Known about the structure:
With about 600 residues, this protein is α+β, with helices and mostly antiparallel strands. The protein is about 40% helix and about 10% strand.
Amino acid sequence: MGRNRPGHRRKQTGSPSPPSVQGKKSTPLWLVVKRLAYWSLVLAVWGSLMLAGVVAYYAYDLPNPAALDTEYRTPGITLLAADGAVLGTAGPVHAEPVALAELPATLPRAVLATEDRRFYLHSGVDWFGVARAAIRNLLAGRVVQGGSTITQQLAKNLFLTSERSFRRKIRELLLALWLEHRFTKDQLLTIYLNRVYLGGGTYGVEAAAWRYFGKTVRDLSLPESAMIAGLLKAPSRYAPTRDLLLAQSRAGQVLDRMVASGWLEQVEAAAAKRSPARPTGAYIGSGGARYFVDWVLERVPSYVGAPRQDLIIDTSLQPAFQQAGEKTLAASLNEAIEVDANQAALIALGPDGAVRAMIGGRDYRKSQFNRATQARRQPGSAFKLFVYLAALNAGFKPSHQFIDEAVEIDGWRPRNYDGLYKGKVTLREAFAQSINTVAVRLTERVGREQVIAMARRLGVTGLLRPTPSLALGTAETTLLELTTAYASVANGGRVLWPYGIVEIRNRKGIVLYHRKGSHVGQAITPGVASAMDDLLQAVVTGGTGRSAGLLGAAGKTGTSQDFRDAWFIGYRGEITAGIWLGNDGSTPMDRVTGGGLPARLWRTFMVAVQP
């Protein structure tokens, strides 16, 4: 008992020994490969189905790229000044497409160097460029570079919005791939160059070339090509009409990229930098000119109907006159503010009624209300033009005498500005000194209806009531109407209609409208016009308009009740100009009269345009 018998195995304690693996067979390699292939196929199928689902989800409402050639767009209008310079635009400005082969080689190279160097190597999406941009953005900690190709930009610009979303990006990729399938590289680049936005309301390189350099894109130099290519990054910021130095600096960067891309020699780039591009010396409409642009655009439908195609409009505005007017009013700002005259307007007309300058207010950005054409204000003594014309037409002479004394009509007693009476005076002296009592007596002698009829014949369209105060300019009119009436006297009594549109044509050069003439007829006889001219000259040589004194000048002052409006309107040579000062709310100024600041501004303007 207790002995260990032979063959007796002691009971084991603790963990049992692991079972022997001897004799177990391993999985054959071919089976592993088979299973791997099977699951790879399954994953590929499901992945394809999921990808197809994603594509279908984002593509089901994609715009139809096949409509690329027939895509509708709002017509654009380009307005040109009298010298052919760009004055302003309305809507998107396009031009006739230009083939890639017609462009100077430097332009597409400049565009590719800045926007898509690998354009001819990728299939619509440059995955290498995307990766490069991602790395640079990651290192910078912010977005400093994009990876979009020209094809992607084209897809976004033509069919999508600028919305920042994953959905929009996927749709952009799908459209880019479709475009690459549908068009050749040269066709895509051509479409892009003819439709890309380049600032100033212009779309396409041809429109931009005309906008900034006054020439066809075919004639662009290397510096000009670089400047246009530089606009693609930020059209408004780099526009040469906004900041020339910044635009030139950006063009220099484009030239450097062309060198880095192998499309330009360093020597050529250096030469281009030494002679940077500049926009043409042609006038680009300022804020003040926008009043004129708006006034012209309102009249386009009456000549050619609602625009259904791009239009080019030749206008009557003279840049030199417009700039002189803006400079004149700007220089008077401090003096005007001191006398509580916060607004101003100016009109200048040629001998046929052509509007040579129009300023409708101090600052177009703050107020688009045109005080030269839309504001109806009391003209004060400037209305006496019609009183004296009616009298001259009825047979009175400048030498006829009247008594300047107190007068009462239906309980109303007009007063002279200085409160004094001069006794016996000629009509010439009464007009020159703007004597109110004589103007009222003359109106009663001639007849109020005759005065109103004369005003109507010379273009005054506002409400004119036959009240005793009619002679003193208590009815309302516009600066444009009043200036036009004075211009008719300057033109020997021939009625003029003010105009701003000379010709309207489409992009193909087909003329849709051309102005043939502006004389409506003879409103007053040459003799009456000559007599009136004598009275108007007397105002400037020795009357209330002495501050406007220039050799050969003629005009009239006007001041409304409580100094709410101050006018000077006159002519010299072939130019008639009118200036108004006042406030939008018709609040009184600090004793500003037409013979003061307005007359001095008129003189300054006329000296600038007629040295």
